[in-house]
Amino acid sequence: MKLKLAAAAAAATALTLTGCGLTGGGEQEVGTESNGVTTLTVGTSVTPHGDIFRFIDENLAPDAGIDIEVQEFTDYSLPNRALVDGEIDANYFQHLPFLESERENQGYELYHFEQGIHIEPFALYSEKHNSVEDLPDGATVGINNDPANQGRALKLLADNGLITLAEGVDPITATVNDVAENPKNIEFVEAEAAQLARTLADTDASVINGNNALNAGLSSKKDGILVESPEGNPYTNILVVRAGDENNEAIQTLAELAHSEEVANFITETWPEGEVIPAN
């Protein structure tokens, strides 16, 4: 989608004229307004999410009448709680399966924009082995301990023949208890996502989230011994706001900027090896 900055700027001007830019879907206000500019706080993961929204803030937001304050989180359990509590106005760190798990388990009333912004392919990394064929019998493999990402990691292993999931199991919600066949007798080491890159040397291999791999200086294309396919992938990262705030004009402008062609080009140019891939 080609961004129409003039239209975005007009929408931002309308915020000032109508005074409707600060009212959210619940009790929390959306952003703060000063001198015709609406400031929105967006909670993100560090890389690439924070990088993407800093690009938007520096290059696109000024002409659209908004200012973005990026608040980075390293713990996946915090950004949705911060959004619900009104500490931030939007967040950008998660894919839909993770959000659905949070809605179900935490009762969060959150809205997601259906169009994704980017995807980071999961990969299996190893400091000890150059290929999956080299993994020994009884290999230790690090894997996410959160439900939404554990199924994603298991699907990567199943798609490449390392394990078989039980018949009828939805890979999105699969857990290690759903492994039906395990010919290499893999021993799964469950850990919080950010820990997997830090403890890679302690395992034979680990499946690591794209953003955590990037933070650790790993490239899925260069370093991964297995890499997830982006085709038909349900794990695109999405922009999330409180339910009811999706029609707020400042939020609408933010969403238009985030889904723009300029952002897609920034992603492609910044990560040319495909560690981060635009979704639109």
UniProtKB/TrEMBL annotation:
Keyword Iron-sulfur among UniProt keywords: no
Keywords from the named record: Lipoprotein, Membrane, Palmitate, Signal
InterPro entries hit by this protein: Lipoprotein_NlpA (IPR004872)
Membrane association type: Lipid-anchor
SUPFAM superfamilies for this protein: Periplasmic binding protein-like II
UniProt keyword Lipoprotein, yes or no: yes
Pfam families cross-referenced by the UniProt entry: Lipoprotein_9
Transmembrane stretches, start-end: none
Subcellular location: Membrane
Chief subcellular location: membrane
Top-rank lineage group of the source organism: Bacteria
Signal peptide span: 1-19
Classification via PANTHER family: D-METHIONINE-BINDING LIPOPROTEIN METQ, METHIONINE-BINDING LIPOPROTEIN METQ
Family to which this protein belongs: Belongs to the nlpA lipoprotein family.
Protein name (Swiss-Prot/TrEMBL): Lipoprotein
Organism taxonomic ancestry: Bacteria, Bacillati, Actinomycetota, Actinomycetes, Micrococcales
